[in-house]
Design a protein that fits this description.
Blueprint (H helix, E strand, L loop, with lengths): L1 H15 L4 H23 L7 E6 L2 E5 L14 E3 L3 E6 L11 E6 L12 E6 L2 E5 L13 E4 L4 E4 L8 E5 L4 E7 L5 E6 L2 E6 L25 E6 L13 E5 L6 E5 L2 E13 L5 E12 L7 E4 L2 E6 L2 E7 L2 H5 L19 E3 L10 E4 L2 E3 L44 E4 L6 E4 L20 E6 L5 E6 L8 E6 L5 E3 L7 E6 L4 E6 L6 E6 L7 E2 L7 E6 L12 E6 L6 E6 L5 E3 L7 E6 L5 E7 L5 E7 L4 E6 L5 E6 L5 E7 L4 E7 L5 E3 L7 E6 L5 E6 L12 E6 L8 E2 L8 E5 L18
Length: about 750
């Protein structure tokens, strides 16, 4: 008993001793953080979609004058996001007892039928978010209209006759519609917790769907696109998380947002923090997310990893260390305002021989993060520039081009096997070596090839010269000879080899993009083909003229001289110009069949995606050929003109297709979960060549190789053509002789 009494006295004396200031502060910060997050849960519980709530002091907000009654002045205040312009939370201040905390429920692309679920944005500490969605243009699909199917109906991923089928629904099925397409032909409904589209004609005619909001591909709800900034200081205590913007999607419902102009798809939980250089870091704590989804520079960010984003690219991918995640530990105290409990990853670095892979534990199980492949393909400038200056030219040696030939084994492509981008000719062994390296640039980027009718010369774009920007060069296909064609400090890009000895290209030497031409069998001097204050780009030659100098050479191109992109026909000898399309939308990337009888191009529909259109060049009658509800790209004619190959992302990854020009029958050539892109026919029309990451390994994830598939019935299996384990091999051309894919649809801005 005496021993117990003595222990009790010691405990009392110790408790009475002064607490060190650091310990007092630690306790104070912990109490403040716990209080702030507890009051956030109390003040903002049951927050409606498209709403903002003041969680804990200090928070400030600005609203549009159109909503004069909206205000956030004290904890517990709520307002609609419709008129919110900006939201600011403050850094922690122990002496004042404040720590800015706020929450927004952002509907984004979550179906309105998912009652009580939306994307959750949490602002913790020094964070400022500015709404980038014009309040006048924002879409708020809050009304749900019950509709009943009157026929057996497919639920589609996107509004298009050839879109991916998500499931089949029986007659009499009751659905909830929350939006309508601009043409009024499609209704957006909820199917299996996801957004889906059905034909309006397949629902009861008395359904009041006319008042539903019009939804396009570019439709955004309030705060779905935003500019944000976070504080960058070191937290004053281990219990205070770094200043951060947290975004959580509903479980199993990916949410698309645009943060600081970077598209992000969130399927889980991410943390966003800005960096001093203007870029920002994305940390995935649960599920997985994608930056630049469905774009060539897409990057997958798995739970436990982070990546730095900005300037149209990504870098700095890594798996975070456990102490970095532990710094955010307080967020696990939040309960009522999130869709599901926030649980931080547990990072395990196993010991063993070599470097064992890192293991990340998350609520759904364990994963081993795989490093993504950095996007390194060069972006050739397509913006307006300062007028260029002519440079001193070297003597030009005329080149004679022979008659057209067909060598089915010929394919040209880009590869970075020697550390920079060069143009290679496909070798029998599929390897990249000096023998089949055509351009052989040392430290330069050699891209955008086009090869001559006789298959002996390749024209390409390169940045190899100290003076000048991008220039046009020619090279023999055996690499034995190279010649510079253009000499200007501006950018000369996208060469297209036409009839016999003519090459056309794009140049911004006049401050905007114009078309130029040179006759390589003569003096090789540039001849200006177009002269307009707008942009003239993407030339494609008619196949007239035969061997030798053609009479009446013609080409098609696109121009935005009437305010949007249209397709034009130019006779380069007479200068006669004919406008082929005339509408209020974008018509881009014209290509011609080998006999010049049919034109194919991409037209932007009113939902916001590019469909494939064709025109009979005899009658100038146009029709839509492919409507998949998603962008079509890379269209190229078969040698006989009977079909067109293209690629599109219909089911979550890009695949290669063909379509019959006469019937519109679409055939899927690749069926896998990989990125299959950039198709080109062999000149005999028996196969299609394309690039894919189907052969990528865990050591080189995302690495691309060339493949071919034979056009048999049924379609033959894909065959790998390039075998270099060290390199990216991509954007092949076989027939026609013009490579259109590496530009990836990038267009100059309209003037």
């Amino acid at each position: 008993m005496k021993r117990l009494s003595l222990i009790a006295i010691i405990v009392v004396l110790v408790a009475a001793l002064p607490v060190p200031q650091s310990s007092r502060a630690q306790v104070g910060y912990e109490q403040l953080v716990r209080r702030a997050l507890s009051e956030l849960d109390t003040n903002c519980a049951n927050l409606e979609a498209n709403s903002v709530c003041y969680g804990f002091a200090e928070v400030s907000a600005t609203f549009s004058a159109a909503v004069p009654d909206a205000d956030l002045t004290e904890p517990g205040d709520r307002a609609a996001l419709t008129g919110l312009l900006s939201l600011r939370t403050s850094p922690i201040n122990l002496s004042a007892g404040t720590w800015g905390v706020a929450v927004m429920n952002v509907q984004a692309n979550v179906p309105a039928g998912l009652t009580g679920e939306s994307a959750v944005f949490l602002l913790l500490g020094d964070v400022q978010v500015t709404n980038e969605v014009d309040p006048a243009q924002a879409v708020v699909p809050s009304t749900v209209v019950p509709v009943t199917l009157t026929a057996l109906t497919n639920a589609l991923r996107t509004p298009g006759s050839g879109a991916q089928v998500l499931g089949s629904l029986a007659t009499g099925t009751l659905l909830q519609a929350d939006g309508i397409s601009p043409d009024g032909l499609w209704l957006r409904v909820m199917f299996d917790r996801q957004v889906a589209w059905i034909p309006r004609a397949n629902v009861n005619s008395d359904a009041p769907v006319g008042g539903l909001p019009v939804i396009t591909r570019d439709s955004l709800t309030p705060m779905q696109a935003f500019i944000f900034r976070t504080g960058g200081g070191t937290p004053p205590s281990l219990v205070v998380p770094p200043d951060v913007l947290v975004v959580q999607s509903p479980r199993g419902v990916p949410v698309d947002i645009i943060a600081n102009e970077v598209p992000i798809r969130v399927d889980g939980v991410i943390f966003l923090r800005t960096l001093p250089d203007g870029r920002f870091q994305l940390l995935a704590s649960d599920g997985e997310s994608w930056a630049y989804p469905e774009a060539p520079n897409q990057v997958r960010v798995q739970a436990g990893t982070a990546v730095i984003l900005g300037d149209g690219t990504w870098t700095g991918w890594r798996t975070l260390e456990q102490p970095e995640w532990d710094a955010f530990g307080s967020v696990e105290l939040i309960t009522n305002v999130v869709v599901y409990q926030l649980v931080l990853p547990n990072v395990i670095r196993p010991s063993g021989i070599g470097v064992p892979p890192v293991i990340v534990e998350i609520p759904g199980g364990t994963i081993i993060p795989i490093p993504p492949r950095p996007p390194v393909f060069p972006v050739v400038p397509v913006t307006f520039g300062e007028p260029g200056t002519e440079l001193e030219r070297l003597a030009w040696e005329p080149i004679e081009i022979g008659c057209g030939v067909c060598r089915p084994q010929d394919a040209f492509y880009h590869s970075d096997s020697d550390g920079d981008w060069d143009i290679y000719r496909l070798a029998e062994d599929g390897l990249n070596s000096l023998v089949n390296n055509i351009t052989r640039g040392n430290g330069s980027q050699d891209v955008q090839p086009s090869y001559s009718a006789d298959g002996e010369w390749v024209a390409f774009t390169t940045n190899r010269d100290i003076l000048g920007g991008w220039e046009i060069y020619l090279a023999r296909v055996d690499g034995s000879q190279q010649a510079r064609l253009t000499y200007n400090t501006a950018n000369d890009v996208n060469p297209v080899w036409g009839p016999a000895n003519l090459i056309a290209w794009e140049s911004n030497r006049d401050g905007n993009w114009e078309l130029y031409m040179a006759d390589v069998s003569s003096d090789g001097l540039p001849v200006r083909l177009t002269d307009d204050a707008a942009n003239d780009i993407n030339p494609f030659w008619f196949p007239d003229g035969g061997c030798g100098q053609p009479e009446g050479a013609r080409l098609v191109f696109q121009s935005d001289r009437d305010g949007d992109w249209e397709i034009y026909l130019l006779d380069v000898i007479s200068g006669e110009l004919t406008q082929l399309t005339d509408n209020d939308t974008e018509d881009v990337v014209p290509v011609l069949s080998r006999d010049g009888s049919t034109l194919a191009w991409l037209q932007l529909n009113n939902f916001g995606v590019y469909d494939l259109w064709v025109m009979d060049m005899g009658t100038l009658q146009a029709r839509r050929l492919v409507d998949l509800g998603t962008d079509v790209a890379g269209q190229t004619f078969a040698p006989d003109g009977a079909s067109v190959a293209f690629f599109a992302n219909v089911d979550g990854d890009s695949d290669v297709f063909t379509v019959e020009v006469a019937t519109g029958l679409v055939t899927l050539l690749t069926t896998n979960s990989f990125e299959d892109r950039a198709p080109s026919f062999t000149c005999d029309g028996t196969a299609v060549v394309f690039h894919s990451d189907a052969a990528a390994s865990e050591d080189s994830p995302g690495q691309r190789d060339l493949f071919s598939v034979r056009l048999s019935r049924p379609v033959g299996p894909a065959v790998r053509l390039t075998q270099d384990a060290r390199a990216d091999d991509l954007y092949p051309i076989a027939d026609p002789h013009e490579e259109i894919n590496s530009k990836e649809g990038r267009m100059p801005p309209h003037p």
